[in-house]
Design brief:
Elements lengths: L34 H18 L5 H8 L3 H11 L1
Helix pairs in contact: 2-3
Protein name: SpdA protein
Organism: Streptomyces calidiresistens
Length: about 80
């Protein structure tokens, strides 16, 4: 009679990796506005208002000061 073969345990599948959601990127903090730059921007904004009758917007500040859009937005927020 043939001897019984030992029963091998069934292979266990590797655990399925769980797809975790990608971490939400943290927005860059608004750059701080140096006081001297803010004072200069205020002079430009005052001259703009005297000439046009309107408050200066971030795009105009950006072009007049030659700063990045994010910094111009921060300055505009400080001036309002």
């Amino acid at each position: 009679a043939a001897s019984p073969r030992p029963i091998e345990p069934a292979p266990t599948p590797d655990p399925t990796p769980v797809d975790e959601p990608a971490p939400t990127p943290v927005p860059a903090p608004a750059p701080g506005v140096p006081p001297a730059l803010l004072a200069h921007a205020r002079k430009i904004a005052d001259a703009h208002r005297a000439t046009t009758g309107d408050r200066i917007d971030a795009d105009t500040l950006r072009s007049r000061l030659g700063v990045p859009a994010s910094l111009a937005s921060s300055i505009a927020a400080e001036l309002s």
